[in-house]
Amino acid sequence: MAPKSTPRPLPGQHQLSREFIAQHQRARIINALALEVSEKGYRKVTVADIVKRAGIARNTFYENFGSKEDSFLAAQQFAMSAALNRVVEAAGEIDDWSYRVKAGLAAFLRFVAEEPALARTCMVEALAAAPTSVRYYEESLQAFISLFRLGRDVSPHGQELPETLEEALIGGVFWILYQRLLDAEADGIEELLPELVEFALMPYLGAEGARAVATAG
Amino acid sequence: MDSPEYPPELARLPPGRHGLPREFVSRNQRERLIAGLAEAVAENGYANTTIAHITRHAAVSRRTFYEHFASKDECFVAAYDTVMAELRRRVDEAFNEEEEWPRAVRAGIAAMLEFLTAEPHLARLSMVEALVAGPVVVERYDAAIQDLVPYFAAGRKGRPAEVLAGLSPSTEEALVGGMVSLISRRVFAERTAELESLLPDLVEFALTPYLGSAEAAKVARQG
User: Fold this and answer.
1) Which residues of B touch A160 (CB under 8 A)?
2) Are A190 and A113 a contacting pair, CB within 8 Å?
């Protein structure tokens, strides 16, 4: 796992810049933390566990982060932006809202399947970690909610839909993924796509409309 | 304030009190420890609650604590189980009082919201503090949510084929997860006063896959 964007040394520089190394170290720490937290739970993980897993010195940890909590927050933010980037990238080009949701959901499921430790960080452990983590979780949820809300414009009865619908739909999808992550069943996750798409689109398009999108090739 | 339908550990508070009543008289030390934990957690949060806090609120000795529980975590599990048993009892009672399934669902959700609103500290204990109280409790929390599934699965009975075709193995899980998510976020944010206003939305959300939006909305908005 590598961070999505790593600064390159400037032209003419033959040595790795300090910034590059620092970013790389952060990535190693985040990766190690995600793995440790997946295995032990946030509460039980220590900085010693993290540095051992990352293969770095304790000093190096503290050069990058002030505390376990800090590093967790960074991991959570990294994981959530990685997920969101994938969703936005997949959904971005598509005109039809319902197919945009399908593509976005597919991308999110792929993220969970490919990076279960990271997914756990931002979905499972976030609520057990610290108030700042919970706050960040909330903000991330808002991003997903906004993506969904656009469905109200395409739905024949968009005006009458319950105000909290998007929140509930996302909560439901998250819960299902959370269960699979807990049971370490991340592998089969992408197979959930058709039923999750149907579940998510049904309130906007009705059963038939939702199914048509869910089962389309 | 009298509330005979509560079990001893959860006898109702006078307004303005944290957690569970100190003046509740019980020969049962375990009950007092559970009540003491709930009060201590309401005051300090789980992480900062010590056994000394618990025993002080319970008015028992430290030795007595260890006669009943090996650790703070274990005491919390007992408190959690007590709160959940009460919540389950109320939801079940309300659900079973109604003949028709859609109304039963509405009644069950209403009972849950009522309890959580009336007891914000117990709501916090069971939905917020539970997540930081160790893996045993987290497991119970997850199981408690999954336990709600049968109330909704009952809605499949007698539905026409095309409705059933629209449901999947994970439908009830998703519904339950979504509803709890709405509730827990408000408990987290200390906005339990808003919970009862969620009732129509929650009912419509839960019933739509089985009844369709129009019918679900009708049941949701019924007084």
Assistant:
1) 213, 217
2) yes
**CB-based contact B201 A165, cutoff 8 Å:** yes
Contact B7, B14 (CB under 8 A): no
Give the residue carrying structure tokens 């960074």.
Answer: A74
Nearest-by-CA chain B residue for A212:
B166
What is the Cα–Cα distance from B204 to A105, expressed in whole angstroms? Answer: 23
Distance CA A53, CA A46 (A): 11
**Candidate CATH numbers 1.10.357.10, 2.40.50.100, 3.90.1150.200, 3.40.50.2000; the one for domain B8-221:** 1.10.357.10
Across the interface, of A169, A178, A202, the residue whose CB is closest to B178 is A169
pLDDT tens digits along B200-213: 999 999 999 999 98
Chain B residue numbers touching A172 (CB-CB < 8 A): 173-178, 181
- Both tokens of B191, joined, read 């906005």
Q: Sketch the domain layout of chain A as residue ranges.
A: 73-215
Q: How is domain A73-215 classified at the CATH fold level?
A: Tetracycline Repressor; domain 2 (1.10.357)
In this predicted model, what pLDDT tens digit does every residue of B45-64 receive, in sequence order?
A: 998 999 999 999 998 999 98
Residue among B138, B173, B200 minimizing CB distance to A175: B173
pLDDT digits (tens, 9 = 90+) for B60-109: 999 989 999 999 999 999 999 999 999 999 999 999 999 999 999 999 99
Q: Is A41 on the interface with B (CB under 8 A)?
A: yes
Instruction: For this complex, say whether ipTM is above 0.90.
Output: no
Q: Does A203 touch chain B (CB under 8 A)?
A: yes
Chain A / chain B CB contacts < 8 angstroms: 104
